[in-house]
Amino acid sequence: MHVRRIKVYVGGQESGCNPTPGGFGSVKWWKIFNREQCDAINRFVCFFTLPFFTFEFAAHVDPFDWNYKFIGADAISKVIIVIVLAAWAKCSSKGSYCWSITSFSLATLTNSLVVGVPMFKAMYGEHGVNLVVQSSVVQGIVWLTILLFVLEFRKARSDGSSTITSVDSHMIKDLEGNEKTVAITTITRPSFLWHFEMPSIMEGSILIMSKAGIGSAMFSMGLFVALQEKILACGTSLTVFGMILRFIAGPAAMAIGSIAVGLHGDVLRVAIIQAALPQSITSFIYAKEYGLHADVLSTAVIFGLMVSLPVLIGYYIALGFLN
């Protein structure tokens, strides 16, 4: 499996560059952007740079070399989370469709490239990196696309559509406006199956845009945080709730899925630990774009990054005792 290009995406982090403070300062201290301009930047990131980012790293992996038991365990863990959240939304007075979407993001979507690649290279070598990249590709192409669809459905329903037909029409209209996101994701399939080689000028252009993906997303997150009155924008209780979903519920569901498909050894350890990686930055970008608990997701990303190292080391030590 090709992993030689990973440094392209996490290079900014390896060199110690973090665009989040730049975004924060641009609003809070230097007053460069107002709220409307911040919203425009977030939309640009959501529907332009992040799709190119997903396309670039997905186009250079070979699915024929994947560990499909590992992918299956990941899918089972997410189905478990969906079932639990659906039951919670239906049976609990505190449950809701909107909070189920946010809770799914918190429990399942990870920052696997920026944090996961260097962490797992130190822990498990290239084998660990390969598994994390596989998880990243599936997350980018499958789970984030499903999340985007669900958010579009919620947006269409919330805009006052009263029938299934009108909701469908609204969704089609919105998705046509975002057709590049879908097209860029879907076009990776020929490269998967037939090892399609793009012209160098096209690949170079895509590479330039993809390099801006995570950096611009972190910059946008800094803009959002600067617009809030406090760093923990969602409050203490929701911060704790998010951390429980991210670092306990997600790995627990992954452990169940891994046992169900028969994973063992280092593959089992990698599966559980990668489920405890910090929150996906893309999940925040989508939450901000669609106006759904962006304060909770931004806190999960920022606070999760701060506490993730001791949590991951703790999982690594504990799972080291497994035979």
Distance between the termini: 27 Å
Amount of helix: over 70%
Which stretches are low in confidence, meaning pLDDT under 50 for 5 or more residues running? Answer: 1-16
Q: Major beta sheet, specifics?
A: none
How many helices in DSSP terms?
A: 14
Strand fraction equals under 5%
What series of H and E elements makes up the topology?
HHHHHHHHHHHHHH
Radius of gyration: 19 Å
Number-wise, the strands total 0
Subcellular location: Membrane
Membrane topology: Multi-pass membrane protein
Keywords: Auxin signaling pathway, Membrane, Transmembrane, Transmembrane helix, Transport
GO molecular function: auxin efflux transmembrane transporter activity
Account of the protein in words:
This protein has 323 residues and is mainly α. The protein has a domain at 66-158 and 231-321. The protein contains 14 helices and no strands. It has helices at 6-14, 19-28, 35-58, 68-91, 97-108, 112-158, 164-177, 179-186, 188-194, 200-227, 236-261, 265-274, 281-290, 294-319. α6 packs across α12 and α11 (236-261) packs antiparallel against α12 (265-274). The longest helix has 47 residues, at 112-158. Keywords: Auxin signaling pathway, Membrane, Transmembrane, Transmembrane helix, Transport. Its main location: membrane.
